[in-house]
Amino acid sequence: MSLSKSRSKLGHVLVMWLLYFLENQHKCWHRALAFQSPSVCKLHPRSVPSIYFSPTDRIRGRALCTSLLAAGKTSDQTPRQDVSKRNRPTNGAERRKLNSDIFRLRKKQSSIHLAEQRLDEAITDMIKENEKDSGLNIPSLMQKRHEQTRKQKEEMKIEDKGLEQFPDIVSFHAVIGSHAKNAHKDRLAPRRAIGLLEKMKELSDTFPHLSPTIFTYNAVMEAYSNQITKNKYRRGSQNRSSEDEEIILRLYRELQEAGLSPNAYTKNMILSSIPNDSKEWCKLERWAFDYLDNNGKSIGADRNTYNTLFKVYSVVGNVKKAGEMLRKLLQWHQQQHLGKDTQTALKPSKIWFHCVLKALAVSKRDCDDHDDQIQRLLKEMKDLVNTGHADLQPDTTTFNHVLNVYATYGNLGPAINLMNKMEKASEQWERPDCVSYTTVIKTLASVQKKMLMTKTQGSVEIAEKATEIFESMRAKSILPNVLTYNTLINIWVNVGTRDALIKAEDLFSQIRYPDSVTYSTLIHGWSKTRLPEAGSKAQNLFKDVLRLPPSRQRRNFSITKLCNSVISAYAKSGNEDAPECVDSLLAQLEGKYLSGEKTARPDKITFLGIFDTYAKAGVSDAEERCDVLLERMSQYRDMLQLEDLEPDRVVYNAVLNGLAKSQQPDVIRKVEDILAMMESSTDERLRPDIVTYATVVDCYTKCGEMSLQRTDELLRFVERTFRSGDETLKPNAVFYSAILQAWAKTATVEGAEKAVNLLQRNVVLFTQGNDYAKPHSIVYNAVMDAIARSNMAGAGARAEELLTEMESLYQSGDDGMRPSRRSFNAVILAYRNEGNASKKAEEMLYRMEEIADSGRNEIRPDVVSYNNAIAAVVEDSDSENTADRAQALLDQMEVYGIKPDGRTYSPVIEAWLRRNDEKGHALADVMLTQFLDKVKESKKGNVRTKKESLYEDAVWNVINAYREGSDNDFYAQLASRGWISGG
């Protein structure tokens, strides 16, 4: 083979390799047909069909073709240039040198600015040359060259000397295309691209050959489109994406006003970049549908168009439009096939069916026919397979999409059946993979969520079933990924018990590379509990998540949200040091935000959580702490212009709640000042609402003497103001409960009678159509509490009668009347205070156990239930075997795993000391030793609760009360151990 033919063959191979590379990038093999010409060697860079490629790819292809053709012709008919003449300057060689420099420099992101600098120098030279009086009309000559074909340029006889070094439109496209390509790495790239577009428009007044074309606009819009795609997966970039969408829309309108016709690539980019509710998007959507209605007679949409639409429909959950477009595409293809049309551009794709399934999952609508829709789609795919579309055979990915639909709707049965079918499949491409098992576990999570919403039992069983599937997955050597672990951890976290959280932590320890979602799930789980260790557990996880690399920080990762959850965990934990811990967390959050971490900005929820921590901890210096926190909010608002930190009604309600829970009499003045400020404010955001007055009543009840008269005045004021038209003071169950609690605290028969009368009045008002007076369980609980504290005759029976009424209303369908543990505890307290109804109190305790065993575990007795029952036994003047009965109840607590406190041991010890005999003193000594061991163990731990530190005094009060007149040997033993001084 001759050297000439070898080079010709090499050139042919290189050009075809280029085309293969471009086609492979777009994964559209049918486009390669456009280039299968017998004379590929004559291919000119400008002959690449622009409609098929993005500006970036087209410029890249033209550059390589140019370099190939510049090196010498590869046609068998045209001899290659002699080697000695290869570097001889020809017409346009200098311009190609300019463009070659630009193409070379733009290959690396770090060198793009050099390419732009090279272009700026060439522009400056062209402008200076044009300003000279050389007799050459440079704009006219450049425009003439721009309009000529390559052959005409080679044959033209006029001398080009002086024009070769000037830039043409390809020079600009090269740099703009580079910015478009690198927009996902360089956030300034779109701005530079649009800056070059503006420069082209400015220069085009003098140099018409630089007028922007559709390809110019496409390249600039591509830069912004790539930026939008990048921002979808970046935290805190939503506003920037919105601005980019507006710029793309402006450019799209601008190019049409300039008389340019958008091509398919332009329209596809608009469809994928702008909001789907905009006018332009809807118009393009209609264009795509019209193309199918016209049976493809007009030039228009291509496969990328419909793929983009399917993607949008799947993201927003538009099942109707996705299904309609799928039907039209299948009909269009069938008509083309019957007409023996050879077009394959819109051949049915499995991706289309998958997008419809995605849309069905994302829609999350309560439709009963989603399973029917799934079966129809699968049947259509199988029918197409039978007609020759073998690539549409449903596979593992298809079934995973089906499982995802079942997971969304919580259809556990169909999901398990499909999984079993996949496991029995003979073909590998139909068998389940990691995604399959993860999606079935996700289905169980959806079922559990429904249970929690409806307060149905079975959450633990769901978690155990999910763990069983997880272990089955690993037994088949299918390795779980981090999403699998996250889903299973979330299920165990939602169980909400200490054992479940320990199980979740065990799963967490098995993950090699946990991500931010893993940590967030566990932190949120601890924040929902009321366990003493919840705060410290959540904070340790918070410290770890802050050290995660960016690659493991998932979308929507927010330091502020996680910090708020840690604060919530501390608020519910009851730790003595919770207020100091949340103050430290706020300082840490402030430091990160001021150092540049935008996702660490303290928000209103942060401050509300801290106020709530103060309230739940019952800090004695609540007034001082709240003032400091309000001042910090104001500083942030003024210094950083954070308007959402402006204290409003919600904030001051939280402050009032913190002051109320402090139980300090001197805060009453502060409460009155805040209420007066809110009442006199002209800002509607500060005006008091029903929560404000309920909290004020609660504050008077806990921090001072709330007289019956003052309570009556507030009740009449609120109801009168509401009836006059102020909806913000519409009474609710919380407000009435606060009023009733104020009456209950008086511990008088009059207060109890007022509570009963208010309840009866509200029942009548509700039957007359006043929804604000609807009875609620918390109102009944408050009335029963008032009765229990009143020492009125028959208090226990009256409280139990109300409890029976609550249970009856709940069983009839009123979920708001569901009795709680507090309801039963109020009845036990009522029987205790009667002084001779200990057996009734014990019966109520056993009834709680029976109801809990039947499935309503929230009724199971707690330490308060047993404390009141034990006290009822010890305080019962008619009780026999008092000490033995009290001891039996204490032992029963230990069996059920209920941790006794000082108020539990004190009546039991008192009962044994009352016997004033050897056995009584011995067992009192045992109980005291047991209690002190528990106190010592509690103080050794890292977590000390307020209750454990307070109730220790109750035991020593009993010991000291029976000291005189008792066995001196017993107290001598206590003194020898150093215990008496502890009292």
UniProtKB/TrEMBL annotation:
Positions of the UniProt region annotated as Disordered: 70-99
Coiled coil regions, renumbered to chain: 360-387
InterPro entries recorded: PPR/CCM1_RNA-binding (IPR051222), PPR_rpt (IPR002885), TPR-like_helical_dom_sf (IPR011990)
Keyword set, alphabetical order: Coiled coil, Repeat
Superkingdom, taxonomy of origin: Eukaryota
Protein name: Pentacotripeptide-repeat region of PRORP domain-containing protein
Protein source organism: Pseudo-nitzschia australis
